Amino acid sequence: MILTADWLWPEAGHALEDGGVRIVDGTIAAVGRRPDLTPLAEAGEEVRHLEGACLLPGLINAHTHLELAALGPERPVAHDFVGWLLGLVEQKRRLEAGEAARAAAAAVATLVATGTTGVGDIASIDIAQAPLLASGMRVRLDIELLALDPARADLALGRLADRFQAVGMAHPDPPLTLGVSAHAPYTLSDRLWERLGAWHRGHPAPLTVHMAESRAEVALLAHGNGPLAEAFFPAVGWGDLPLPTGPSPLDPLTRHGLLEGALLIHGCHLTAAEMARVAAAGAALCHCPRSNAYLGQPPPPVARWLALGISVGLGTDSLASCPSLDLWEELAFAYLWHRTTPEPLTAEQLLAMATAGSARCLGWQRVAGALTPGRAADVIAVEVEGGPLARLPERLLFDRGRLRLAMVAGSAVAGTDVP
Ligand SMILES: [Zn+2]
């Protein structure tokens, strides 16, 4: 199939007018201008041009928790991290399984309808798996591990290993990539980190960790005090447990060989020395701007992360801390939010984060995130107004046109122009 449009944004720095892709067996075979592509068509090969649209890689939401989608309407309002976390724990307790499953399925539908073709989801329970796999999206599912009580470390790790094996056996092939989410430096005991490190040496699955999300987390790991130790742990019955140890929130990972290649979510409060450690370990960072802003965090220095060569992706986080799962809304917010800082991000940098950057976060750098020969045809076509080619990324972010087509590995999954 040869698919062309008035505009093409295959990856950062390569935008074209009147361009497209040739797709063979679900893979990008060629990229270029329409006059160069159309003569490649073989007898019977479909040739389509989408007028008034731009073709680009499908957006990839590198971090969300679909199982929390039901909390959207009653999202905790406290805008300090620990107040929000206490609200979340309370609301999760009241959540009814059927309601959670319905909301997760609706959230999956929103992702697909807004041009997201790949998603990294954290699963502490298994309610989102079925709608995710039925959606046709590329999926990275991270099974969650969380236990601060050292006496529960073996049990928690045993459960993780069992779930990992069961889901892996049920879905051995792409588009599902299976990983582990070690929730955060403040919710795993030192003993559990040690057990996870030992397990991981035999099962080198991709690892995700919420990292340096709040000042409360930094204070806890560095000094053993602050609102996590003084308010949160007593409220959830963890008040008598040994505190996790840092001093850096990266230290539990480093101690057990888990930082190398890990996906770190948020990273809002990493110091310059910690950013250098992240870069040296080849770990990736997922930026979740609306969630950070909702929890009262300032914009993190994403331009510095990029300058250090860190792979940076974009995620919405869950509906418990973000008003939608629409990555276009995330992009527009991020662009404006970072303009309040000394180091704003360009629309092109942000689009690159939501495509190639998120792909690297999820381990898909060879298969998705850019329209280049050899990668899967995870392509979207979005309506866009006319205008200068140099401003195409801004137009994509702010004109916010209709989704005409979304494909994963060459198969249509959404859009108004799906045949
Ligand atoms: Zn999260």
Describe the structure.
The chain is an alpha/beta fold and 419 residues long. The chain has 2 domains: 2-58 and 370-414, Urease, subunit C, domain 1, CATH 2.30.40; 59-361, Alpha-Beta Barrel (TIM Barrel). The protein is 36% helix and 22% strand. The chain has 15 helices and 15 strands. Strands 5-6-7-8-9-10-11-12 form an 8-stranded parallel beta sheet. Strands 3-2-1-4-13-14-15 form a 7-stranded mixed beta sheet. α3 (97-113) runs parallel beside α4 and α13 (327-338) crosses α14 (347-361). It starts with a strand and ends in a 5-residue tail after the last strand. The model has no long low-confidence stretch (mean pLDDT 96). The structure holds zinc ion.
Succession of helices and strands: EEEHEEHHEHEHEHEHHHEHEHHEHHEHEE
Mind telling me the CATH superfamily name of the largest domain? Metal-dependent hydrolases
Distance between the termini: 13 Å
What share of residues are in beta strands? 15-25%
Count of helical stretches: 15
Structural Rg = 21 Å
Global outline: globular
The mean pLDDT is: 96
Regarding CATH, which class of the largest domain? Alpha Beta
- Please state the second-level CATH architecture of the largest domain: Alpha-Beta Barrel
**Total beta strand runs:** 15
